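Researcher: Structure for this, please.
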Amino acid sequence: MRLLTLLLLLLLPSTLLADMLIQLKDGSSLRGEVLSMDNGVYRVQTRSLGVITIPAANVQGMLSSDAGAATMVQPVPAAPVDPSAVADITTRMMQDEGLLTSIMALQSDPAMQEILKDPEVMKAVQNFDLEALRNHPKIQALMRNPRVQAIQGRLQ
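Model: Predicted structure, token format:
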């Protein structure tokens, strides 16, 4: 579970900062960069309104443009992610320069780059769907990567 949390930390920045067309359940839509999603509320940076908050319950879906192909992301209730575990891992990463360097190097790994291009994986990441991530073949292969296993070892 710790490693999946780590993978979410690695993958989320690239998905959250993407320009998204957010379609609301009332039929309206807006465009912006999703900055975060916390406690069921999205923080979105828009050009005209600045930073706004949108309850996830009001979102019909999000349309992102990844690798030239539009992908509709349907929000689903997030699987419970232990906030203290995420905070612990984040703190440890920031305090360990070697670990942080290893994680940053992993982001340029070809296997990681393939994962970042996979709309199915990105949807699971955006929705914190740990079960889908745990069962995805690309994630399973990444978990066997010696570099990922070394990072996991340093986190234990």
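Researcher: Any notable elements?
Model: The chain has eight helices and six strands. The CA atoms of residues 120 and 136 lie 9 Å apart.
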